[in-house]
DNA sequence: GTCCAGGTGAGTG
DNA sequence: CACTCACATGGA
């Protein structure tokens, strides 16, 4: 039973240039944070529910959260990658990347659960973000564990679920998984679950590998190609030296980089710039889609 | 009805 | 290698 006291939220003073939770939750790296007033965002980290709002008064940004100060220090700061320095010198000539970085300032690359990230991005292929969110929600409601919450303060009716374990998914019959609307990705998800559940694929052990080897190992899975592998490496394994290329990024490369991009310009953080670009083209350039 | 979505695997040359 | 093509599903 998780106890949440919304009458007495924790206040965190932090500028939006360092952490902007709206951009961070909305930039396509995570699928299980939802916005709902009065606490704009609600989500699950390591099986626990957190509410977060970002406000401003007298020119000072701050966050209100259901997390305790202790949880902020020990869990959320790591989750939001707060300690990392995101300053990066981009060559003056790289106008697009500079604009994208300005527009996306405040985005953090989250430290998300690897297993959840793997399944989420297998589901993401050839799919749109609202639908991805929807199917992942269904998946969690059907096969995750319900998180029991007791509220103090304003009562909420939402139910929250943990992300289903590999063991749980590995045991599903094909008719069960086909009810989730995954389409042809059914077999990819089942296969990944069985590989992980059997120990054939040890996600923890992959942490020790260099990025190239990590990508290679991920791509041994059915349904995991270069793009999904890069996303899992970036958003799950926190490899900021990756650079996932999807249709949007490819469009950027074709339009603004004459068909090829040199990610060495982005030093040790191409993944961060990639995320700025993704957010920029979808939300900044033409008002988004 | 058609088109598209944070792609991939299989088949072909 | 590079290049096609089918692939389930649901919303616009």
Largest sheet composition: 5 strands, antiparallel
Radius of gyration: 19 Å
Secondary-structure content class: alpha+beta
* Strand order in the largest sheet: 2-6-5-4-3
Count of strand segments: 7
Globular, elongated, flat, extended or rod-shaped: what is the shape?
globular
In N-to-C order, the SSE pattern is EEHEEEEHHHHEHHHHHHHH
Strand content: 5-15%
Distance between the termini: 40 Å
Tell me the number of helical segments per DSSP (H or I, 4 or more residues long): 13
Helix content: 40-55%
Average pLDDT, to the nearest integer? 95
**Are there runs of 5+ residues with pLDDT below 50, and where?**
none
Question: What topology does this entry show?
Answer:
Blueprint: E1 2-5, E2 10-13, H1 21-26, E3 34-35, E4 41-45, E5 48-57, E6 60-65, H2 69-79, H3 95-104, H4 114-124, H5 129-143, E7 149-152, H6 166-170, H7 174-178, H8 186-197, H9 203-206, H10 211-218, H11 226-235, H12 247-256, H13 270-283
Parallel strand pairs: 1-7
Antiparallel strand pairs: 2-6, 3-4, 4-5, 5-6
Helix pairs in contact: 3-13, 4-11, 10-11
The structure holds a DNA duplex (13 and 12 nucleotides).
């Amino acid at each position: 039973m998780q106890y949440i006291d919304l009458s007495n939220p924790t206040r965190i003073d932090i500028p939006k240039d360092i952490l902007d939770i709206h951009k961070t939750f909305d930039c396509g790296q995570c699928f299980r944070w939802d916005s709902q007033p009065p606490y704009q965002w609600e989500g699950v980290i390591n099986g626990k529910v957190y509410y977060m709002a970002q406000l401003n008064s007298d020119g000072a940004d701050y966050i209100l959260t259901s997390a305790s100060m202790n949880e902020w220090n020990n869990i959320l700061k790591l989750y939001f990658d707060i300690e990392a320095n995101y300053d990066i010198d981009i060559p003056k000539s790289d106008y697009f990347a500079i604009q994208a970085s300005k527009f996306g300032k405040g985005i953090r690359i989250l430290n998300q659960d690897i297993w959840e990230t793997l399944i989420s991005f297998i589901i993401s292929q050839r799919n749109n973000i609202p639908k991805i969110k929807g199917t992942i929600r269904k998946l969690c409601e059907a096969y995750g564990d319900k998180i029991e919450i007791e509220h103090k303060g304003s009562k909420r009716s939402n139910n929250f679920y943990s992300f289903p374990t590999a063991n749980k998914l590995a045991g599903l019959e094909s008719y069960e998984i086909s009810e989730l609307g995954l389409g042809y990705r059914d077999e990819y998800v089942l296969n990944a679950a069985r590989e992980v559940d059997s120990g054939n694929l040890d996600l923890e052990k992959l942490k020790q590998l260099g990025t190239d080897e990590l990508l290679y190992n991920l791509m041994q899975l059915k349904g995991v190609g270069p793009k999904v592998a890069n996303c899992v490496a970036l958003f799950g394994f926190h490899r900021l030296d990756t650079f996932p290329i999807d249709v949007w990024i490819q469009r950027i490369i074709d339009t603004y980089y004459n068909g090829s991009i040199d990610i060495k310009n982005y030093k040790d953080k191409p993944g961060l710039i990639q995320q700025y670009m993704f957010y920029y083209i979808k939300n900044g350039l033409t008002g988004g889609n």
